[in-house]
């Protein structure tokens, strides 16, 4: 017997409609590429999203066609989120930090028909437009008078004149909720990037889950600053979750340095901010160098890479800002787990609470997870046994775009992460399957080794990699970039590991470098580091 409830599809257009109707005067604040601060409301955003939809109709772009973006976090990008997907096209957010040839490859693979870009990325567009075979329209996200006369891009349109003449009314189509809504290519440190293709249903369910109190805890009284880029897994779904809850949104544009972020937090009364550890490190450095505080910030979502313990301590203890460590990936829309405490933890001493907070957290409803051994046998949730982490759920990938072979194992998606899960359901990543250092049959977590080095006051960034060893297969070394003007010697840093990790886990050597290579999403590029160290020989 079927239930007798209405069968309304879950659609992205209903998110912006809800925000406009119930939170019409709610603010969206953006630091623009032009340098100024722009203010609009959810009602403005809905009207302009409809102008985008009409403008796409006018260009004759069919339902299901891909519309690319090369853009920072801002109100225009948000209008494309709702206007493109809401009208039945697929929003393809492209990471502008990739190499131009990779961007062209991705645009061709996705068969983008139009690409909208911030003027910052005009040099990229100039270089690739001749190679993007399917792109018929290039649209610069600016006013007509900011359009460079000699852009070198034939037929270049200004976004404002493109949408400006269009009506602000649009009848959003009643799409199949399983229709594709947006896509994002994985950063692909090896091989060609692969695309996750999200649906309206997966995005709306993800927005519900992301707003929950134990996830991002969003409400109509929150002010959220997504520093995580809108070209990286839809800014962790924040634009959708913000529309669902009607919270105030603050977009940082291209300025992600500590000073700009702190200024925006203070001037806009930001209560919650989301980003990767590298961004927060810049912010914390700025605060400590200038003896500043946060006056409104209550919590930070830190994800995309492991949150170093020193960072958690600084936020929690020095600034009274709650850290919510979160884990996920492009293939998971991205939310998998968030770390918040349970009632039973309330009476714990702060130091013990912080140990829990450093874990990647508990699965949000909708995400099912397990850890398995090499034979695929499930391992216990005892907080000690580690295994390959597998997930399934309604916003987790089934297939990659244009790749027939299923990535799944018996219906579960292998994340490529190695983790433990404790009896309370707190998952902790111990490594990437490919980064774990295998020494004498034991696994050494490269993350643990990095965290110790990062806790040393002289160290700005640390990367642990396994080096081939004739007896132990591999031994860990730690590659370190120091803070400007700071000093620490090899032996002193190795001594710093005493009592913090087991003796056999202590790195065999320290290699000092100017900087650690970072990938397009701000994560350490260990493949590149290994290449740089190809002639390195272990002292042991
Ligand atoms: P991406 O698809 O680029 O977002 O990368 C996803 C990968 O980033 C995950 O599979 C993890 O390896 C890593 N990752 C994300 N969040 C965390 C976290 N909180 N701690 C450790 N690794 C993380």
Summary, kept brief:
By secondary structure, the chain is α/β, with parallel strands linked by helices. The model has no long low-confidence stretch (mean pLDDT 95). Bound molecules: adenosine monophosphate.
Poorly predicted segments = none
CATH-level-2 architecture of the domain at 12-24 and 37-199: 3-Layer(aba) Sandwich
CATH homologous superfamily annotation of the domain at 12-24 and 37-199: ANL, N-terminal domain
Q: Count up the helices.
A: 16
Structural class: alpha/beta
Shape: globular
Write the layout of secondary structure elements.
Blueprint: H1 12-22, E1 27-31, E2 37-41, H2 42-59, E3 66-70, H3 75-86, E4 90-93, H4 100-110, E5 112-117, H5 122-128, E6 137-140, E7 157-158, H6 159-164, E8 180-185, E9 195-199, H7 200-211, E10 223-226, H8 233-236, H9 238-245, E11 248-251, H10 258-268, E12 272-275, H11 277-290, E13 299-302, H12 309-319, E14 322-328, E15 335-338, H13 350-357, E16 362-363, E17 368-372, E18 386-392, E19 413-421, E20 427-432, E21 437-439, E22 442-444, H14 446-454, E23 459-469, E24 473-482, H15 490-495, E25 509-513, H16 526-532
Helix pairs in contact: 1-2, 1-3, 1-9, 2-3, 4-5, 7-9, 10-11
This protein binds adenosine monophosphate.
